[in-house]
Specification:
The protein is α+β, with helices and mostly antiparallel strands. The chain is about 25% helix and about 20% strand. A hairpin with a 3-residue loop joins β1 and β2. The structure holds adenosine monophosphate (AMP).
């Protein structure tokens, strides 16, 4: 079920638990600002999630409340993960679902990084 993006941050969400190391993940990158791990239910040959270390519900929350350093660090981390996975030359796609119409299910900001094959149209119709 999609989340309500106006709700306060829930410290018990599954990505908060992954950040704290309370549940396992296939972690492939981490730095001061962000952590990246493989999606448990991949929708493409490469499907990696990048999340900020800070407690932000969504892109909306992050863009409104995060510090300039957090935003810069997170954006750079997404780029670093794409480069580390060799996605730049063949190309890739970034996606951040927000709230109900976006179909966001986990209430901790995450950017999906898709690649490893031609990805087709941007949105299925
Ligand atoms: P969204 O619909 O944008 O909120 O996407 C949530 C994503 O999190 C989905 O692609 C799920 O497959 C993924 N996901 C859920 N639980 C886990 C987990 N424990 N480890 C890795 N990915 C997960």
């Amino acid at each position: 079920m999609a989340i309500d993006p106006t709700q306060p941050y829930d410290d018990g969400n599954i990505f908060a638990k992954i950040l704290r190391g309370e549940i396992p993940s296939n972690r492939i990158y981490e730095d001061e600002w962000a952590v990246a791990f493989e999606d448990i239910n991949p929708q493409a040959a490469v499907h990696t999630l990048v999340i900020p270390r800070g407690a932000y519900v969504s892109w909306d929350d992050f863009s409104a409340r995060a510090s300039d350093a957090e935003i810069a660090g997170f954006v750079r981390a997404v780029g670093a993960v794409a480069r580390a996975k060799g996605l730049v030359e063949p190309g890739y796609r970034l996606l951040a679902n927000v709230g109900g119409h976006g179909g966001q299910e986990v209430p901790h900001l995450h950017v999906h990084l898709f690649g490893g094959e031609p990805l087709g149209r941007m949105i299925a119709r």
